[in-house]
Design goal:
By secondary structure, this protein is of the alpha/beta class. The chain has 19 helices and eight strands. Helices cover about 45% and strands about 10% of the residues. Helix 14 links the parallel strand 2 and strand 3. The structure holds 7-methyl-guanosine-5'-triphosphate and S-adenosyl-L-homocysteine. This is Trimethylguanosine synthase.
Length: about 450
């Protein structure tokens, strides 16, 4: 319980995603699978989020930097630059460590989702032996990361708040690497690593790939700082509701602009897609016209508005639509969204609209969905099972993104694929925790990641 709160109270979790392409008959995996996946997932993660993190941590550690650099001599500027490079190396090692733990979780989570897979995918199991994954009871499953790692991952977003020794132990780094006493943190010139130290540091990094290096020049970047109001009030209905309270603690992970007036009703508190995941889905479904079939208070619709030409946001609940409109205005994108009050099933049967993509995030039956070890997507989704819901969506387009519980039966998810086509199943993590999966269907959406092996 305690660690649960530590996890959920953090406002800026890191987002990691892994995906795998399946077709109805086989997963087309080969022995290189894990290594390839690891490489590409790490690169896309680091390219997507690395620089922002480096900057954020840098300015936390050296708040005086911005002013100091203005007056700095050329020599002092070079000293800062060297310090920045070391900082970048340290942080990359730090995130690589966490990433490795998440990857181990992914192996386990994927395996859990495939547990019930029977005849139809009989050859997948053999192929997955390459992953060296072991069957674990989902309720007791833990990553292969040690308990110390877990504690670290749960507690740590700010490296600075950890003891130096603890950091080094957990990062598996030598004392000359990433270690700084609190006192000399603010004295960049005295703590610059020697060149040889720097070199050996970079040699120690688990992945050496040129593309992996984020180009380093902190001076050239303007630093975004969003000031959060500290005085947001917990809505009364949440105070009395133990179930909901945990979502309050992660409000900034749901909406980074939460304190600018985001509105959510009870159902939406536990249903809204966290912003970083919604952003990822929006990158994947970027198109001209998209239908968000169950838009709720707009978590996904807002992000679609940033990547799509036009968003048709449908919900059966008028109050939620009003909140979605206000939330979209906070993100400055309300003008790109048409809010449609309708039953999606009815809409799909009657509309002449032919969007480029549809996103489905229907109700899962409330937070109790977690009580099922394996979530049956044909039985438990509302208002319809996954297959008939997909049939409705396919009247409009074949390009579909489907947001589903992390414990979904992957066999059922794969079975939604059209014969002869593939689907891509994406596992979305915030920090080390799997939040949900997103399945993509339709030729133009599914990544061609296995082409090489297929040839
Ligand atoms: P969760 O399992 O309730 O939260 O939902 P969490 O923090 O993982 O729970 P914990 O007890 O394991 O800590 C995880 C995410 O799934 C939420 O943030 C929502 O984005 C999404 N989600 C949850 N529910 C119940 C629904 C739902 O009914 N519909 C949709 N579309 N998304 C949901
Ligand atoms: N993706 C949304 C959350 C969706 S929650 C977000 O990130 O904010 C599921 C939503 O489906 C709820 O808002 C619910 O009102 C809506 N809904 C339920 N049945 C529906 C139907 N038949 N047609 C359209 N919307 C429906």
């Amino acid at each position: 319980m305690h660690s649960h709160f530590l996890t959920t109270s953090r406002s800026n979790p890191q987002f990691y995603t892994f995906s795998q392409v399946f077709d109805r008959q086989s997963a087309n995996l080969d022995p290189l699978w894990k290594e390839e996946l690891q490489q590409s997932a790490w690169l896309s993660f680091w390219e997507r989020e690395g620089y922002e993190f480096l900057e954020e941590k840098w300015h936390k550690q050296y708040p005086e930097y911005k002013e100091a650099i203005e007056l700095a001599t050329a020599e002092e500027q070079a000293a800062w630059q060297e310090l920045w490079i070391k900082h970048a190396h340290d942080q990359r090692a730090h995130f690589w460590h966490i990433f490795s733990c998440v990857l181990e979780n992914y192996e386990r989570d994927l395996h859990n989702g495939l547990q019930d897979v029977g005849q139809i995918l009989s050859d997948i199991d053999d192929q997955f032996s390459y992953l060296e994954i072991h069957q674990t009871d989902a309720s007791t499953a833990s990553t292969e990361c040690s308990e110390a790692d877990q504690e670290y991952l749960n507690n740590n977003d700010d490296q600075e708040s950890l003891g130096e020794e603890q950091q080094l132990k957990l990062l598996g780094l030598p004392t000359s690497f990433g270690a700084r006493s609190t006192n000399d943190r603010r004295k960049p010139k005295q703590q610059l690593p020697s060149e040889s130290e720097s070199e050996s540091d970079s040699n120690r990094l688990s992945m050496s790939n040129q593309k992996d290096e984020i180009q380093l020049d902190v001076k050239s970047r303007a630093i975004k700082k969003t000031k959060r109001q500290k005085n947001s009030k917990i809505p009364q209905f949440m105070r009395d509701d133990n179930l909901l309270l945990k979502y309050w603690f992660k409000r900034f992970s749901l909406f980074s602009r939460f304190d600018q007036g985001i509105l959510l009703d009870r159902e939406s508190w536990f249903s809204v897609t966290p912003e970083k995941i919604a952003k990822q889905t929006a990158r994947r479904l970027a198109s001209d016209v998209i239908v968000d079939a169950f838009c709720g208070c707009g978590g996904n619709a807002i992000q679609f508005a940033n990547t799509c030409g036009r968003v048709i946001a449908i919900d059966i609940d008028l109050k939620k639509l009003a909140m979605a409109r206000q939330n979209a205005a906070i993100y400055g994108v309300a003008h790109k969204i048409d809010f449609v009050h309708a039953d999606f099933l009815q809409f799909a049967r009657t509309t002449r609209l032919r969007p480029d993509a549809i996103f489905l995030s229907p109700p899962w039956g409330g937070p109790d969905y977690q009580k099922q070890q394996t979530f049956d997507i044909e039985e438990n989704l509302l208002p319809l099972g996954a297959s008939p819901l997909m049939e409705h969506a396919r009247r409009l387009t074949e390009n579909i993104g489907f947001f589903l519980p992390r414990s979904s039966n992957i066999k059922q998810v794969i079975a939604l694929t059209h014969a002869g086509e593939q689907c891509e199943v994406e596992h979305n993590y915030l920090d080390t925790r799997l939040v949900a999966i997103t399945a993509y269907y339709g030729k133009s959406l599914v990544k061609k990641q296995r082409q090489k092996a297929d040839k």
